[in-house]
């Protein structure tokens, strides 16, 4: 006879019902490498067939798993091979047609987002890369579910400053073409250094070259659970005890998430890929990384000590996850998006969090400058400087960093952008007025650091 641990059952129920624990996303990665053709119409037909073949039951089976285990699955997503590669063989590089095809498939399949409208240009551009990047602003303006990412640097290759400058222009144009929706196009576009190919989170998800034909990656989130666990500790508990508590909580979250992921992968008859244990917040009160800092003892996010608290949190989450699963991957750690975290929004509105403090925090978080709204009249050269700084942090520290910056059209410091849902809302943050132009316009490639020579 099976013996149930009453306390464990109650703890799991409380994680879900009281502390906003959820499966933030199940993301099906699908390779489109066999969809190449000189005819873009044939490419689109192959894409439709491939996505329908593997993803036709994704939403249905995810809903069944959610009902079976009573664990919310917030988003169902697809990530595909970087589209710059898929469209490159076409005689006429009509990437917009491919973009509309992907968006139409996402709509028909009932998924929330589709990622992979991407290019990897850390050392330079192919014709396909250039054509895709040129198409990004319009592609994001004419679609609803499409997400885009471009990798412009790595610790091995350095930083492609021509790509940084081009992406700054692309971000500005993406926001301008969606000005009636507070520049939401830029909210679905991210620039990376050291991007990872098994990341289930948008806007950066894509199916990397070394990935299988199809796999199921899962992103688990539980900042509310971690916060509640910390609040249960004695306030006099030292840093070691605090770290252990976070690790124990991350262990439980990871084990639960992998159970759900493996069950869904089995139903879909595809391999299980990775579990991304990321404390990805939402605008819901109590589901905030910033509020974890307060539970740790800081008055608010942005206080001196915030970067140290984030470093310990990120490390403890990863250690706890690694003990629970051999397949932790993706980005795994703690996200600090301004618009998607109720506590971060409040801190930014009150002036506790500045752009510079956020940049410092990205040295130790799991991604980077995420969902930061800035005045719409910010010069593209200044945005290029922001991107370059963030890419440098990733390159030197051999970690993934990203910039998802929104130059909100017709908005100034103190205004607000409102997107709703998981994208939330954000105050327009103050930007340094000093010019970056002469530096970023030099172009070329910032060489890789000396530690890249480690063969």
Describe this structure in words.
The chain has 455 residues and is α/β, with parallel strands linked by helices. It has a domain at 217-449: Anaerobic Ribonucleotide-triphosphate Reductase Large Chain (Alpha-Beta Barrel). Helices cover 44% and strands 19% of the residues. Strand 12 and strand 13 form a beta hairpin. Helix 3 (58-69) crosses helix 10 (239-268) and helix 9 (223-232) runs parallel beside helix 11 (289-296). The protein starts with 5 loop residues before the first helix and ends in a 9-residue tail after the last strand. Mean pLDDT is 90; it is low at 1-6.
Which descriptors would you attach to this protein?
twelve-stranded mixed sheet, globular, two-stranded antiparallel ribbon, Anaerobic Ribonucleotide-triphosphate Reductase Large Chain, 455 residues, alpha/beta, single chain, 14 strands, disordered N terminus
Task: Give the SSE layout.
Layout: H1 6-17, E1 22-30, H2 40-55, H3 58-69, E2 73-80, H4 83-86, H5 95-109, E3 113-120, H6 127-142, E4 146-154, E5 158-160, H7 161-177, H8 184-187, E6 189-193, E7 214-221, H9 223-232, H10 239-268, E8 272-279, H11 289-296, H12 306-324, E9 333-334, H13 342-349, H14 355-361, E10 369-375, H15 380-397, E11 401-408, E12 416-420, E13 424-427, H16 437-440, E14 445-446
Parallel strand pairs: 1-2, 2-3, 3-4, 4-6, 7-8, 8-9, 10-11
Antiparallel strand pairs: 1-7, 4-5, 5-14, 6-11, 12-13
